[in-house]
């Protein structure tokens, strides 16, 4: 996973609540067994509409979205598609729990900013389409002077900033896992199923 | 300390307690299917890792299997199914493949085989994993990176969710079902109302539900945005699980929320005057009673209005239209929400002696090979086929349309599934969610109808 210390660039605005992962990447693209190459299918059906908001900011690396972004299906392909399309961060008032974790695990920063502050960010990028999100200092900076901070739990921050593999980190805790496992008895009997 | 049921399960599975940060949670059962696992197995292979606990990992094929007889014709679907078979062979994972007689929708076969049991932690790379909460388990939907993590470590890093009690009160009127209860709850909570929470469903109407009904309720927890949904085990649970092939008797006596334990959020839903529910929009929270009319966007707060307008445009519905006047093209009875034997019985009771309305295409897709066999033994297949329904093989089918079962653009479907998102059942397709009995009523009348008037 690519480390993500900060992202600077153009911003796309998708001002709709409850954007579900079926829209972000429709089911017909989930049959692939690869992890890369989903970017061209991002918002596949919505992209057919010439008025779709994302067409207004080609090459954007930051997406400003509505509340409950990424709800619905657990398909991590949604985060992969956004990342592969060129986005490194999504800023929204809230995210679905599964999407948020999928994004972190895919090197895509899910940044929570309250709706009223997001309005200010939108106004700023409407005047000048440029934004920097610094994952180390947890700040959003607009060149015309707007600056705000956001929260990100330390585990997520570390994962994103250093591009870490969660599995490798967990395997460093082998002693704790083994200690749990040594007395563990499976709760079901797979051998019972003929 | 007085604890909620969730907290008891959480605490019993802590490999490492991270307090308010990330904890490491032991996973008792990892269910795997073809769509969200290939990249996870690939990550294991690339890092030279093995599946840590093959005895706690079970795979099946469900999302893109065809429901008609014959081979898989879609080359991409075939490749993905072959990949699952090869991965399970290579890593030593037990696979209930198509044709094994044990296959089915992953959230149907888990409880059916007795894999899912009270007090367990269960994960699957699928958001409807919340279904398994019906047996009193903490069941969490995860993404593919997390699937790889659980395969490699049998643990999952998790921040401790908040708890929410959804307490159903009153008496469920005759003719109403678990689906009506949960759709009404989502209408109340909203599609993000459960975000960051594990919901525990309580109250008399929940206790009165069969295991199938409880699974329907827990299944749709994710549609309220919840991390999981669960129901404390009771005699109904024990009676259902005893004798299932993988069942192991354990002590459940402490698997309930202690008197006086506090939830972070409490919501109460009175079902006494509930009417059958039908969705009219493009998320499961856009739901109304069968007696209602299509809502007017002007009645909504400014921040919700645009979404309602957009939904009505997509659904091709005019405000003020009675839901009963909406005609349908297709009926889908199936999915991890409503394709268990009780669901098929409920639909068959409505269909028996009637005919699918002219111009309507209706299909039943049993949730598992075992449900299909049982339904055939009980004569339900004959009831459906006599009425003009298609009777299919088990799979996820038109719930998400990854296999050939899809809506055509503009088609309107009465569906027992869980999501009415734009294009969910096929690009341009229009989905209305309802119970199996209500879907059956729609099939025989050609429009939405109050099933209680057909009784």
Task: Offer a concise description of the structure.
The complex is a heterodimer of chains A (about 190) and B (about 450). With about 190 residues, chain A is of the alpha/beta class.
Q: Explain this structure to me?
A:
By secondary structure, chain A is an alpha/beta fold. Helix content of chain A is 30%, strand content 15%. Chain A is built from 7 helices and 8 strands; from the N terminus they run E-E-H-E-H-E-H-E-H-E-E-E-H-H-H. Chain A has helices spanning 21-24, 77-85, 97-105, 115-127, 154-162, 166-171, 174-181; strands at 6-9, 11-14, 62-65, 89-92, 109-112, 131-134, 139-141, 147-149. Chain A has a 4-stranded antiparallel beta sheet, with no helix packed on it. Chain A has a 4-stranded parallel beta sheet with strand order 2-3-4-5. In chain A, strand 6 and strand 7 (139-141) form a beta hairpin. Chain A starts with 5 loop residues before the first strand and ends in a 13-residue tail after the last helix. Chain B is α/β, with parallel strands linked by helices. Chain B is 30% helix and 17% strand. Chain B has helices at residues 5-12, 38-47, 75-91, 106-112, 144-153, 178-189, 204-207, 211-219, 235-241, 302-315, 341-351, 369-377, 380-387, 436-445, and strands at 14-16, 22-26, 29-32, 57-60, 94-96, 121-124, 138-141, 155-159, 162-169, 197-202, 228-230, 265-270, 277-279, 287-289, 330-333, 361-364, 390-391, 412-415, 430-433. In chain B, the strands form 5 sheets. Chain B has a 5-stranded parallel beta sheet with strand order 5-4-3-6-7. In chain B, helix 2 (38-47) packs across helix 5 (144-153), helix 6 (178-189) packs parallel to helix 8 and helix 11 runs parallel beside helix 14 (436-445). Chain B is globular, with a radius of gyration of 21 Å. The relative contact order of chain B is 0.14. Chains A and B meet through helix 3, helix 6 and helix 7 of A and strand 2, helix 2, helix 3, helix 5 and strand 8 of B.
